[in-house]
């Protein structure tokens, strides 16, 4: 059976275009850290490394399912969308305007919890052999538990995200919630489009009751 995040994790990955509160469970990710403008070549190169690693892990998992004597509920899965946690350098935080070169990010792709740790390690080792890239040595496997969060589906240009963040902030004010950190997460649901109005991005940040 194929595990599809769009069906199984709809609540956390496919919200409506209005702010909602959600409880995000602990997840495992493969991730790469970086700093700078997301429009830069460095950012694009990191993405081009992360995706092959994710698909290599998926391929290794399918081999594992065929060779194991254990019963598995899922013998395949759909690769999750790209996500990124965004922060700003201290210099960037002191500026009145957004300086993209001062952005700090950790991009990641979630790996289903039923994929064994050894399969992840083997998948990463395989991609290092087949598609060697120094950035693969910076690849990490992390766990993250966001717990109580507020999120919204933003449609359109990334530069227009402040309007959606205002809706989230208003939601927090209405429900007596406060942001836990200055950081936020973006999940890139629709990215392959030349029309910016068609971009779909989940915006999310951690909160706690006041």
Q: Helix- and strand-based class?
A: alpha+beta
Using only C-alpha atoms, the radius of gyration works out to 18 Å
User: Which parts are unreliable, with pLDDT below 50 for 5 consecutive residues or more?
Assistant: none
Query: Portion of residues in helices?
Result: 25-40%
Number of domains: 1
Distance between the termini: 43 Å
The CATH top-level class label: Alpha Beta
CATH fold-level label = Multidrug-efflux Transporter 1 Regulator Bmrr, Chain A
Mean pLDDT: 95
Number of helices: 6
β-strand number: 9
How many strands, which pairing sense, and closed or not: the largest β-sheet? 6 strands, antiparallel, barrel
Strand order of the largest sheet: 2-5-4-8-9-6
State the shape: globular
Q: Name the beta content range.
A: 25-35%
Multimer state: single chain
Query: Which CATH architecture is right?
Result: Alpha-Beta Barrel
The helix-strand sequence is EHHEHEEHEHEHEEE
CATH superfamily: Regulatory factor, effector binding domain
């Amino acid at each position: 059976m194929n595990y599809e995040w769009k069906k199984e994790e709809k609540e956390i990955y496919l919200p409506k275009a209005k702010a909602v509160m959600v409880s995000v469970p602990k997840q495992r990710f493969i991730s790469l850290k970086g700093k700078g403008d997301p429009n830069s070549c460095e950012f694009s190169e990191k993405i081009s490394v992360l995706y092959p690693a994710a698909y290599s892990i998926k391929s290794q998992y399918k081999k594992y399912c065929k060779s194991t004597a254990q019963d598995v509920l899922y013998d395949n899965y759909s690769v999750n969308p790209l996500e990124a946690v965004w922060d700003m350098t201290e210099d960037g935080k002191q500026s009145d305007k957004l300086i993209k070169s001062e952005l700090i990010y950790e991009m990641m792709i979630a790996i289903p919890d039923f994929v064994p740790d050894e399969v992840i390690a083997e998948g990463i080792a395989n991609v290092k052999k087949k598609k060697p890239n120094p950035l693969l040595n910076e690849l990490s496997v992390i766990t993250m538990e966001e717990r109580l969060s507020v999120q919204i589906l933003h449609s359109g240009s990334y530069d227009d995200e402040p309007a959606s963040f205002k809706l989230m902030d208003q939601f927090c004010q209405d429900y007596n919630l406060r942001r836990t950190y200055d950081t936020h997460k973006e999940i890139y649901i629709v990215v392959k489009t030349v029309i910016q109005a068609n971009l779909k991005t989940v915006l999310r940040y951690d909160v706690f009751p006041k």
